[in-house]
Amino acid sequence: LRQARDRLQIELDQRQRREGEIRRLNQELTLRASELAAANKELESFTYSVSHDLRAPLRHLVGFSELLRKHASSSLDEKGQKYVETIFDAGKRMGSLIDDLLTFSRIGRTESRMATVDLQGLITEAIAEVKQQTNGRDIHWEVGAFPACHGDRSLLKLVMLNLLSNAVKFSSLRKPARIEVGALEGSATSVEIYVKDNGVGFDMEYAGKLFGVFQRLHRTDEFEGTGIGLATVQRIAQRHGGSVRAEGAVDRGATFYVSLPREK
Ligand SMILES: Nc1ncnc2c1ncn2[C@@H]1O[C@H](COP(=O)(O)OP(=O)(O)OP(=O)(O)O)[C@@H](O)[C@H]1O
Ligand SMILES: [Mg+2]
């Protein structure tokens, strides 16, 4: 009996030690999580203030190069005029990069409003908006059926607008262009939406890069843009606990997938 009691005591001690250890690890984890949240917040506000502060000197640069172009162009030779033009264009471009960065950092800063989202309605709306900028283009649209999901409607609209406008942009050389928007089964807890086009595509070797801020695989003189669209898509998907992936081949079109939580 005594032996049994001793064994029980040892087990009890061990259990208490383990529980203490778990409590300690839990506390450590909570601490780490709040440290991470704080660091994230700091990074967000850093991005925000840097972009914000860069705007003022940039306004001068663009403003004065414009003045130079207007008032002093007669005293500049052709080369000089070209230089001023280049300064002006580069300043403008930097301005739109900064604006994009600000918009991007805002996504991380604002509270999301999660609710049931009627994806069918949202996607119909987004397609109608994108179609307004496709006058004169020959595009065959194929649009599937979509279930409801759980998310922030305005952020998810941004996701769709970005993917659809990419599909339209990178298929601009095709006659006709084909764009397919649909939903895959996903899993018990997620739905997967895809946007597929028959445009210029991309090399799969760089597929991971596409979602980085300002990362582009095509030159600005071929297809304009700053390279913030897919970074925005990824950030929003991740905020929803979802993910993104891309498939493509050079000259054979591209497909972008976003998985989102199902309706609760
Ligand atoms: N549908 C697509 N087909 C081929 N390449 C694509 C497609 N969508 C995106 N890409 C590639 O991924 C890059 C990043 O896309 P992203 O949407 O972030 O930038 P962007 O469209 O160039 O500019 P922005 O969206 O900021 O106007 C693009 O520059 C292009 O090289
Ligand atoms: Mg884009």
UniProtKB/TrEMBL annotation:
- The name under which this protein is listed is histidine kinase
Q: Which GO terms describe its biological process?
A: osmosensory signaling via phosphorelay pathway
SUPFAM superfamilies per record: ATPase domain of HSP90 chaperone/DNA topoisomerase II/histidine kinase, Homodimeric domain of signal transducing histidine kinase
**Which PROSITE patterns does the record cross-reference, listed alphabetically?**
HIS_KIN
* Pfam families found in the cross-reference section: HATPase_c, HisKA
Keyword check for Heme: no
Q: Which CDD domains match?
A: HisKA
This protein's major location comes to: membrane
Question: What EC identifiers does the entry list?
Answer: 2.7.13.3
The residues that cross the membrane are none
For molecular function, the Gene Ontology terms on record are: ATP binding; phosphorelay response regulator activity; phosphorelay sensor kinase activity; protein kinase activator activity
Q: Which UniProt keywords apply?
A: ATP-binding, Cell membrane, Coiled coil, Kinase, Membrane, Nucleotide-binding, Phosphoprotein, Transferase, Two-component regulatory system
What highest taxon heads this organism's lineage? Eukaryota
**Coiled coil location:** 8-42
